[in-house]
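Example S7 (structure tokens).
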């Protein structure tokens, strides 16, 4: 009968007896050596590196949004962390959102009309006046038909 002791195969003292589970156990006969400590250290470093990468990627869209003074920076930060928690599915959307600026609306105090942001030229004003007279004449014709 052969029994595993340490890292070599040595014959057992009871070769005539059938082997039992304890005879083949390597846990009881092996101690932790330097290589095991080295493997634990490598796994610890890898785990720390993964945590650092995940935290850095989770913070990235929020930091970009704050740096660009995005009005929805807090929501982008939340979307980024939710994206990381969901396995990275929503994270690219948060990153793209951090680079986009929302368009100003009339409710937020911004002007949504084009003519207030750029003055019309003389030709543009003439065309506008001509179209206004056409609209007025069409409105008068419509009112005339409604009266009949």
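Recovered sequence:
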């Amino acid at each position: 009968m052969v029994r595993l002791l340490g890292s070599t195969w040595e014959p057992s003292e009871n070769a005539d007896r059938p082997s039992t589970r304890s005879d083949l156990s390597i846990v009881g006969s092996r101690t932790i050596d330097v290589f095991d400590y080295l493997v634990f250290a490598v796994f610890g470093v890898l785990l720390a590196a993964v945590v650092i990468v995940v935290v850095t990627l989770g913070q990235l869209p929020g930091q970009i949004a704050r740096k660009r003074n995005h009005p929805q920076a807090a929501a982008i930060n939340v979307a980024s962390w939710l994206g990381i928690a969901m396995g990275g599915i929503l994270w690219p959307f948060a990153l793209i959102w951090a680079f986009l600026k929302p368009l100003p609306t009339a409710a937020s105090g911004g002007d949504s009309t084009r003519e207030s942001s750029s003055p019309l030229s003389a030709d543009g004003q003439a065309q506008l006046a001509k179209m206004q007279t056409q609209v007025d004449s069409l409105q008068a014709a419509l009112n005339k038909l409604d009266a009949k």
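Notes on this example. The two ends are 118 Å apart (CA to CA).
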